Structures are given as structure tokens and as C-alpha cells.
């Protein structure tokens, strides 16, 4: 029999979230105003606490004594799609089974779960919030779905898994998401197969001097270059948005390349940046004037502008081109077949190009449609 309970949830604010994303939980001197609190009705299912929100279930808490936890895919006929902010924060769980129905894991959801050694993320997962698995001091194995997942700031900070990944490569990239670039140095060119750069990926990296984004990345996320104090040049000529605190405290930034397709620059994107830069806009002055931005932004107002509309946007993605060679042919069919069969060392350079039925996963239905598309080509 279910029992009704009441719970208090702390409402979050944009500015506080941005700062929290780049500060450790125990940052000395960090002071936050207490946010207003709102009461929500919470129900229980076993050791789990949940809320009903319209047509889905949000897991919002767990019994402190729980160790091995399995989240059901549905409760009372409604799908469990969200693991809420702080849901398992600091709880001594040793294992967690997350159903494929979950599409979102909230901020700090599993922070400081020191007994958690391995986690398998669900197939339909789309986003993971700020520091969701931070300080899981035993977390050494993470199994990811075969798709792009947008990870927020510092999701795996202070875990054995991230420590090991940093030893393997300059960039920690999972299925097109550049999660971490703390080991990057000097002049950096992000690999062409990256589609998303996580917030705070370069934050506080004082070793980088220039960065070039590939054409597939469409936004400069929150805090991406926060306090990169030696960063001088950034080429993001294909992005459409520059989010909050993206270049905050980058006081040596003097060369910035932007797109004619840019629509938005957050008011805090260049917070406390006092350097004088040359900004090249690959478009016309009319394109630049249409961008939503702060008319009183010191960095933007002090800059010298160059307008160049000669740059042509990259060609659209080719459907079926899973090997990313800019052609759709039998080579893509063979590669997808091997991948579906689990042939060792088979990797897809661009799995989304093979998702013919647009359901967010690759299976034999996509292979059949790929074969049909080749025949009709």
C-alpha cells in the first residue's frame, strides 16, 4: 500500500547553476543565497520515492539504507523517464539498474555514491545533468548507449573512470560528445566527428592557447572555456549559440571567429573579459546586427570587427554515410552489418546517419531500409 509523503525541493536559478557547474561542492568561500522552497507530493514504491508529472514518473529520492537498487520502467502504468536532481545523492548504493525508459538524469543525481562501482546508462538516455556522478570514488566502469548523449558539466569528475580515460587520450569523447579536455595543451583542433562539446569541458584549463571547433558542433555550451586564462584564439565559425559564461574570465582572448548563422550570445558569455579582440564574422554586418546579444557587453563593444561572407557552410549530413567518407555506398552497408553482428573493433564514425527510422537507435530495421535506399539510389 502506497503512502503519501511531503517533500521539499530546492528551486534552482540559472546564475547559481552556472557557478555550481564549475565549482567543486566543497569550494572554499563559496556562498549561495538560499533559494525559495516549494512543496511537492511524493509517493513511494519500495525504496524509491517518486512524483507523478503529467504523463511520466520522476524518481526523486531513495531510502538511505538501500544498496542494490533496480528502478522499474513504469509505475502505475506510467513510464519512468527521469531521475531527478539529487535523487540518490550521497546514498550508499552499491549497484543501480536504470531502465531504458529513462531519458534524463538530473543534476547531482548520484553525486558521492562512493560504493557505486559500475553503471550502465539506458539506451534512450538523452541528457545527463551537472556533476551527476561526481565523487563516485569507486566508479570505474561506465557502459554507454550507442548514441550521442549530451552530458553537462563535470558529470564524472573525481571518479576512477574519468581518471583512466584521461590517461588514454587528450580528449575524453563518447559517441560524439567531447566530455572532457583537461589534458589539452597549446593549439587545439577538436576532432571532426565531435557533435557536442559538454559544458565546462575546457574550464580552468590554463594550458590551451587556441581552439578550433568542427562544423558539426552547433553551440558553445555554458562554461566551456570558463577561466581559460591563456586562451587567445577561438574558431567557432559554425555555431549558432554562445551560452552563459562560455568565455568568462578569458582575459587574453584576442581572436574570435563567429558564424553568419549565429542567433544568440548570452549576456554573461564574456563575463569579466577585458581584452580587446578582433572578431571575424563569416557573414555580413546585417547578419551580425540580427544576433540577440547584450548591447552593453564590454568585450563585444571593445572589439574590432571583420565581416567576411565568403565562407560556405558545410554540406548537409549524408543519410546512410555511417563511415563518414562523404558518400553513401555499399561500404556503409557492410560496416553497419558488421557492427550489428558485433564484429570486434567495428566502429561507426557517424551512427546517426544510419538511423533511417529516426528512433534514436540502430537495429536490423535500419539495415533493411539502408539496403532499400541503396537499391533505389
Structure description:
With 377 residues, this protein is α/β, with parallel strands linked by helices. 14% of the residues lie in helices and 26% in strands. The chain is built from six helices and 25 strands. Helix 5 runs antiparallel to helix 6. The termini are far apart.
The major beta sheet can be summarized as: 9 strands, mixed
| Rg from alpha-carbon coordinates | 22 Å
Number of helices: 6
Beginning-to-end CA distance, first to last residue:
59 Å
CATH topology of the largest domain: Leucine-rich repeat, LRR (right-handed beta-alpha superhelix)
CATH C-level of the largest domain: Alpha Beta
> Which structural category fits the helices and strands?
alpha/beta
Overall geometry: globular
Q: Which descriptors apply to this entry?
A:
377 residues; alpha/beta; Leucine-rich repeat, LRR (right-handed beta-alpha superhelix); nine-stranded mixed beta sheet; six-stranded parallel beta sheet; 25 strands; globular; disordered N terminus
Amino acid at each position: 500500500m502506497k503512502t503519501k509523503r511531503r517533500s521539499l525541493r530546492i528551486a534552482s536559478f540559472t546564475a547559481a547553476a552556472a557557478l555550481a557547474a564549475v565549482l567543486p561542492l566543497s569550494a572554499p568561500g563559496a556562498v549561495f543565497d538560499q533559494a525559495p522552497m516549494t512543496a511537492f507530493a511524493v509517493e513511494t514504491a519500495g525504496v524509491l520515492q517518486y512524483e507523478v508529472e503529467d504523463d511520466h514518473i520522476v524518481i526523486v529520492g531513495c531510502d538511505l539504507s538501500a544498496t542494490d537498487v533496480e528502478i522499474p520502467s513504469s509505475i502505475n502504468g506510467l513510464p519512468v523517464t527521469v531521475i531527478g536532481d539529487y535523487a540518490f545523492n550521497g546514498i550508499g548504493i552499491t549497484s543501480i539498474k536504470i531502465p531504458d525508459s529513462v531519458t534524463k538524469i538530473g543534476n547531482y543525481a548520484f553525486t558521492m555514491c562512493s560504493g557505486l562501482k559500475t553503471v550502465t546508462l539506458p539506451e534512450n538516455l538523452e541528457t545527463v545533468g551537472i556533476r551527476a556522478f561526481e565523487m563516485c570514488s569507486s566508479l570505474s566502469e561506465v557502459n554507454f548507449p550507442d548514441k550521442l548523449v549530451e552530458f553537462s558539466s563535470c558529470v564524472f569528475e573525481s571518479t576512477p573512470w574519468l581518471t583512466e580515460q584521461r590517461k588514454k587520450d587528450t580528449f575524453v569523447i563518447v559517441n560524439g560528445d567531447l566530455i572532457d579536455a583537461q589534458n589539452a595543451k597549446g593549439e587545439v583542433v577538436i576532432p571532426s566527428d565531435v557533435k557536442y562539446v559538454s559544458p565546462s569541458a575546457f574550464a580552468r584549463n590554463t594550458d590551451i592557447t587556441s581552439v578550433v571547433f568542427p562544423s558539426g558542433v552547433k553551440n558553445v555550451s555554458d562554461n566551456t572555456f570558463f577561466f581559460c586564462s591563456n586562451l587567445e584564439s577561438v574558431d567557432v565559425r559554425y555555431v549558432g549559440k554562445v551560452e552563459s559564461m562560455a568565455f568568462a574570465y578569458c582575459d587574453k582572448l584576442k581572436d574570435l571567429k563567429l558564424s553568419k548563422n549565429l542567433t544568440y550570445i548570452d549576456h554573461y558569455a564574456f563575463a569579466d573579459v577585458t581584452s580587446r579582440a578582433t572578431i571575424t564574422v563569416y557573414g555580413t554586418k546585417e547578419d551580425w546586427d540580427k544576433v540577440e546579444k547584450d548591447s552593453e557587453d564590454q568585450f563585444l563593444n571593445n572589439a574590432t570587427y571583420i565581416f567576411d561572407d565568403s565562407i560556405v557552410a558545410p554540406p548537409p549530413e549524408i543519410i546512410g554515410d555511417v563511415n563518414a567518407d562523404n558518400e553513401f555506398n555499399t561500404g556503409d552497408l557492410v560496416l553497419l552489418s558488421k557492427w550489428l553482428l558485433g564484429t570486434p573493433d567495428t566502429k561507426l564514425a557517424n551512427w546517426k546517419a544510419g538511423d533511417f527510422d529516426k528512433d534514436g537507435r540502430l537495429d536490423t530495421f535500419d539495415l533493411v531500409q539502408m539496403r532499400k535506399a541503396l537499391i533505389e539510389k
